[in-house]
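Sanity check

After download, print the first record. It should look like this:
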Amino acid sequence: MVPVLARLFPPVFEGVFHLQQEILIEAISETETQPPHLPGQREGIEEIVSHVAVAADRKTVGCEDLAEARAETGLGIVTEAIDVETFDLVEQHADCVQIGARNMQNFSLLRRAGRSRKPVLLKRGMSSTLEEFLMAAEYILAEGNYNVILCERGVRTFADHTRNTLDLSVVPAVQSLSHLPIIVDPSHGTGKRNMVLPLARAAAAVGADGLMIEVHHQPDKALSDGAQSMYPDQFVELMDEIAQIAGAVHRSLPRGITVAEPAPAARV
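Expected structure tokens:
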């Protein structure tokens, strides 16, 4: 199991979906949960996914930008490897490699992740059963990488009031069948900013091991998924509320985490 999780709630993975520019990285980093001074652990983790898919000539530059942000802020980086060909590049720069929902059953990519020494964040496929989800993780484990984090990000149903249907029942189901930690992504799970906070509260209450939240200073200018991205001040509110809920279900925030006051964000 990844030491950073330690069955404490959260960690919280926070950031934008697509890498846009260096200024944005710095702005988002200012409102990240700050990492505690604990040797060998990293509790504040920045999640900026899929930037390698923005443009082919941005692959190396994007990873280098993230590495520079890590050096300046002390935050870890989770970013997505979208295929076997780009896995080496992502592995070189990221602290944790994400495998997205559409690649959950990309078995060659899963095996490559299993040969990595970096932790792997595996998202549930949008039409995958619990058994398929756990079997996908087994492909990674079978190659010798036991640092796997599962992520519930919503499944497709007939419901049309949200982008996906967030299946929070999978959290206790996974915990009864597997030793692997499971976090929840209410941003992709709902696709709507006003639903992220309520579902984040619910995820904390149901016993999730962490959250993945999309945050953007100017969501209307985001390259993608702006409608589901929280403003920084909303993220601060979320952190405060889940800390209280975590205590009620006998969980706790890792010691040493503080939340920086965000810079004012212009809302359009």
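If your output differs, re-run the checksum step. Summary of this record's structure: Confidence is low (pLDDT under 50) at residues 1-10, 33-57.
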